[in-house]
Design goal:
Layout (H helix, E strand, L loop, with lengths): L1 H25 L3 E14 L5 E13 L2 E10 L2 E13 L2 E10 L4 E13 L2 E9 L7 E10 L2 E11 L2 E14 L4 E10 L3 E18 L2 E12 L3 E11 L6 E10 L5 E16 L2 E8 L5 H5 L6 E9 L7 E9 L12 E13 L2 E10 L6 E9 L1
């Protein structure tokens, strides 16, 4: 049954593409383009497996466009969406319909609109889903006055129509030290007032102390039952041999909001050798910070190299190789606790055809994986 349904959707897809091509050839102001992408994986257990495939034809005429997006996952028709965008009487509008082709079921419908009135920007986003009580509309108003930016958003349930939540933010630049300031408040239909957040970003502490630039970020959240202060210290050396480096730290605050101690939890940076060749390094001194510093929660250290690649057709390719190390060297069978090596290779073969490879090579018992991707633009 699912195979028959998938075949029906495939026929609809091919008919839509054929109609788009015909329409494109008839209208001189129309254009027809799109992208086709397919990814094949190679693992220890499966030498060749079609992991995913997608095709996205787009028709454009003037300020209006229509797009069909079909995606296949593990050989099955996984998702289908039809969307369009245009302008009507000064109002920019877009709509997207998402379907589950395998089950022939409706997934969601989104309608967005935006316009400007009296130097204020208004946007509206409506999301309709099968469960009517989870459908909503969100209206946002934003603007600026005397170098102060503000934004307010209100979310309402659509069935039944009821208030859900509201958020308001005001932001400005503290001119004495160029720090970015903001104050945000949140309300909802369950408890009313939820919290107020005051944040400061890029407060200059010192500009050149022993060749180091120091800045401070801080966030204070006031809720009905608690107050949370999250400070962050960032030191950026300007030494000639390694100018792109960050020392990441925090400030420990006691309940009286007095500074108790300063601690460092990581370092990251990059060294530009020349001709685009770049060495990247990152080390986390706290397991809770691994993900934000190295990019992977299970590894505390990352060493990598990346570079652009010259190609025959004018487009630029790229490659990157990264090595990740575990905190406990006993958990890895490789030298120095090496736990994972990743690589990526992206190479345009012609103006509209690109070939890429992504590799994940763990050193332990976990299986390796290669992902081969072809991408065709027209």
């Amino acid at each position: 049954m699912k195979g028959a349904i998938a075949l029906i959707w495939a026929c609809i897809l091919m008919a839509s593409i054929g109609y788009a091509a015909a329409a494109s050839s008839e209208g001189s102001d129309m254009s027809f383009n799109g992208i086709f992408e397919a990814t094949i994986t190679t693992t220890q257990s499966a030498p060749v497996a079609l992991e995913k495939m997608s095709i996205t034809p787009v028709i454009s005429w003037g300020q209006t466009s229509a797009q069909l997006d079909a995606r296949f996952l593990d050989g099955a028709f996984d998702s289908l969406s039809l969307s369009g965008a245009g302008s009507l009487a000064g109002i920019n509008m877009s709509s997207s319909l998402k379907l589950d082709p395998a089950a022939a079921e409706f997934v969601s419908w989104q309608l967005n609109a935006s316009f400007t009135l009296l130097d204020l920007s208004f946007t509206s986003a409506t999301n309709i889903v099968p469960v009517q009580t989870k459908s909503y509309t969100q209206v946002t108003v934003s603007g600026s006055a005397d170098e102060v930016d503000f934004q307010s958003s209100f979310k309402f349930g659509t069935c039944p129509v009821e208030f859900w939540e509201a958020n308001t933010c005001v932001s400005w630049i503290m001119f004495d030290c160029d720090a970015k300031m903001s104050i945000c408040s949140q309300f909802d239909d369950e408890i009313g007032f939820r919290n107020i957040t005051v944040s400061m970003k890029d407060l200059l502490l010192f500009d050149d102390f022993l060749g180091i630039h120091g800045s401070f970020n801080g966030v204070i959240t006031f809720a009905t039952d608690k107050k949370v202060f999250t400070p962050t210290l960032r030191l950026i050396p300007s030494w000639f041999f390694c100018s792109n480096i960050e020392l990441l730290g925090g400030v420990n605050i006691d309940p009286t909001l007095s500074i108790g101690s300063i601690s460092f939890y990581g370092v990251r940076g990059q060294v530009d050798v020349g001709d685009g060749l770049t060495f990247i390094f990152a080390e986390s001194l706290s397991a809770q910070k691994n993900s934000s510093i190295t990019g992977k929660a299970d590894y505390w250290e990352r060493l990598g190299v990346s570079s652009p690649l010259s190609t025959c057709c004018g487009s630029e390719g790229s490659f990157a190789v990264d090595a990740y190390f575990k905190c406990d060297s006993g958990s890895s069978d490789a030298l120095f606790g090496l736990g994972l090596v990743t690589g990526s290779f992206d190479f345009p073969l012609s103006e509209g055809f690109t070939f890429s490879v992504d590799a994940d090579l763990p050193t332990g018992s976990a299986g390796w994986q290669l992902a081969w991707t072809i991408r065709v633009l027209w």
